[in-house]
Amino acid sequence: MKNKVFIACSIDGYISDVKNSLEWLNSIPNPEQNDMGYASFMTNVDAIIMGRKTYETIAKMDIEWPYAVPVFILSRRLTSVLPNLNAQIELMKGSPNNILQTIRSKGYNQLYIDGGNTIQQFLSYDLIDELTITTMPLLLGGGSPLFGPLINPLHFELVKSEVFLSQIVQSTYTRKR
Amino acid sequence: MKNKVFIACSIDGYISDVKNSLEWLNSIPNPEQNDMGYASFMTNVDAIIMGRKTYETIAKMDIEWPYAVPVFILSRRLTSVLPNLNAQIELMKGSPNNILQTIRSKGYNQLYIDGGNTIQQFLSYDLIDELTITTMPLLLGGGSPLFGPLINPLHFELVKSEVFLSQIVQSTYTRKR
What we know:
The structure is a homodimer. By secondary structure, chain A is an alpha/beta fold.
């Protein structure tokens, strides 16, 4: 059972800029569409736990729903999702521990935890086992931060660090318990 | 002429923890005292611009003053420094641009900019040319942040990324102008 984060951020730790834009993610030319390990990461994911904002950002994009695995969306407010996504999406609320228990009871164990608030909440309960951070070479100076406050420091172990497109550092850490 | 930062921080971008401690910097065993490029970095430094807090942190440590080059300490409040350091230290105040002009007029051009507030202030004026960030594998969840708000994003170019002691990622960026 593993809860994993796979996310891109700026050097100063923002996952979206002050205008809520993600354009800066494309600031490094990527002619061969290097996915920086994303597809390989997804082969080891059973289900996704995603914050409401991340869901709405994806739903607003003019693209096909990009996930083949079930997606659990955390929201206190949402009561329904796009009708064509009813089969793939389930809305959930509650504490991270209760949510995990429910999702695991459905047989999903390799979980991709996505969205700033959701990641912060899971980290605050020390529920993240693996952290892959892809650092874009810029300072945004504001926006949505990847990390939030913690009661106690959390130590991690570096598993791998790679450079993509000569410009993007990606480091994978696992929680040291 | 170059203004350079060389600093260690946590994965979540803190340079000291909530207790103002730096003990976590020693959380990775370093039996052979690998300096992670510090001595080599310092061979290309003419002078140091340092914030008051960083000065006070070093002054309080029971160690010899660790710098061979002149150190300019930025403070609106301080009127004197430890008497034995009078020859090596000069107190300064004013805007980053004025400070740089004064220091350069004295013939110093390769400057090491140190201390969280000082780095943030220089970055806010887009006065940092090189950024070497050594990332310790932990989340502190609070403390003094390395980065602060910016009016506009600042793009950098990755020059080098290395792993030290199998655990510590160090990335060097230069400002892309």
